[in-house]
Amino acid sequence: MNIECSHVLCGSSVLPHIGYASTFGFFSGGYVALTAIVLVDLVGINKLSDAFGVLLLFVGIATAVGTPIV
Question: Which CA distances in Å does 14 have to 11, 51, 66?
Fold first, then answer.
């Protein structure tokens, strides 16, 4: 998604790049911060480590398979 969104900024000054990077980083940070909170709500605190491991397994598989396709 970063490549699709950032092509608009080609040839422009540095200020739009700073705005885009800060917006992208802010919302990406929200995803990272909320992952553990959502997992605790779904599976409970006792199974958090197992659920986080399974989540990272599927994220890794999706990254390995999806990256060459895109």
Answer: 9, 41, 31
Tokens 């994220």 belong to which residue?
A: 59
Domains identified in the chain, total number: 1
- In angstroms and rounded to an integer, the radius of gyration of the C-alpha atoms of the chain is 17
| Cα–Cα distance measured from residue 19 to residue 31, given in angstroms and rounded to the nearest whole number | 19
pLDDT for position 17: 83
Helix residue spans in 1-70 (DSSP H):
2-6, 14-43, 48-69
Length of the chain: 70
Find tokens 């959502």 and name the residue.
Answer: 38
- Record the pTM: 0.63
Domain that holds residue 40: 2-69
